[in-house]
Amino acid sequence: MTALMTLKNVTYQVEDNLILKDINLTVPAGAHYTMTGPSGSGKSTLLRLMAAMISKTRGDLIFDGQPIESYDPIMYRREVSYCFQQPTLFGATVADNLAFPYQIRKQTMDTAHVTAALDYVGLSAKQLTQKIEDLSGGERQRVALIRNILFLPKILLLDEVTAGLDTANKDIIHEWLRHLNQDRQVTTIMITHDTTEIEAADQLLRVVDGRLEVGA
Amino acid sequence: MNLVVNNTSLFLAAMLVLVALAISLWQKLGLDKDIIIGVVRAVIQLFIVGYLLKYIFRVNNFWLTTAMILFIIFNAAWNAQKRGAGIAHALPISFLAIFVSTGVTLGVLVLAGAIKFIPSQMIPISGMIASNSMVAIGLAYRSLNSQFHDQRQGVLERLALGAGLMDASIAIVREAIRTGMSPTIDSAKTVGLVSLPGMMSGLIFAGVDPVRAIKYQIMVTFMLLSATSLGSIIACYLAYRNFYNEQKQLK
Lengths: 216, 251
Hints:
The complex is a heterodimer.
Chain A: E1 3-14, E2 17-28, E3 32-36, H1 43-50, E4 58-63, E5 66-67, H2 73-79, E6 80-83, H3 94-103, H4 111-120, H5 137-149, E7 155-159, H6 167-183, E8 187-191, H7 195-199, E9 203-208, E10 211-214
Parallel strand pairs in A: 3-8, 3-9, 6-7, 7-8
Antiparallel strand pairs in A: 1-2, 1-4, 4-5, 9-10
Chain B: H1 7-13, H2 15-26, H3 32-59, H4 62-82, H5 90-111, H6 119-150, H7 152-160, H8 165-190, H9 198-205, H10 210-239
Helix pairs in contact in B: 2-3, 4-5, 4-6, 5-6, 5-10, 6-8, 6-10, 7-8, 8-10, 9-10
């Protein structure tokens, strides 16, 4: 498989605080990585750096054959999409959130496509008009994830998206991620502390004290 | 003209300052030094401005009047940028916003024949416009700062979804513009019912027929709505980008 993203000696530093140290990683297209490590070890920082939400201090980050600096950050983030652990939903209703990816692309919402995505994760089209404060934690997380994939990115970066969810919600998200990865060829990297998810991982990345251990 | 403020009556009125000083000392507010400095500054500044305006009105020169208007705009911009702590380039942004809002509003008033381009009309009206624009911009800056802080997570999520800077900030920018304009809109709703505003009060005080005075006040209401909306929108649209770095990341 060809490398979709390559990190070479990537370092991230805030003032004197070295947060990520000489990260080397090759992410092939279509891969599914599970990333784990102690809290505060730098996992989220690494994903945010890959998502161009922050910039590396040193090293090279190559995406699709080009250095990250050659991309417009906005267009890059549409290809490398980052989903937060505790997402904030926008506006008043579910529809406000799912219309947003279309708004930023100056398009009208494709209701059939949105309905299909809702259906896939056990939500219904009726819920488009539902107030976001009436959603359960699992429903909120699923709506947030749909926002990220209405326009399929090449890489989906998931920051503990199943944390705090019950087994039923976790199962829905696991099955959906499997579908995105295996059927839609979306490369995924998922941070987790969940032992079941870690045990089920095909390829494991471990971040310890700002250093990356591949396949550990 | 029935104005009778002479030096003696002004001196006697200064006794009112003692009331404020007494309250400060009695309630241990620690404001006595500030009160004295404030009063001394007000007296000196107003005397200087009084003599300066007297000279400018007498000379009645286009360039001198324009220079005085620019001086007012610069001072207004300087004060507005103090509210924009943390916003890069707040001074030039404020200056441009106040310059345009004052210029457009003054231009319309002159072209409409509501005022003439003479210093005794242009300078006081410029001061009113610029000061209201200044307050609106200051409020808008404060709103931008607090919202970019409080709604940081929402902005980050919009960026992560591939939103442009405007799409990521539009809700914050709109709220800041609304915040800047709302005092002028509120006062427009209650003008004459809650307060008799400065311009109208001044004219009535000077003996002008109240029915004539309200026409000027109506004009002032129109011009302040224009000035605060223009000032707020220009300042917010120029300032919001400063919350992001060159990599389009939230600072």
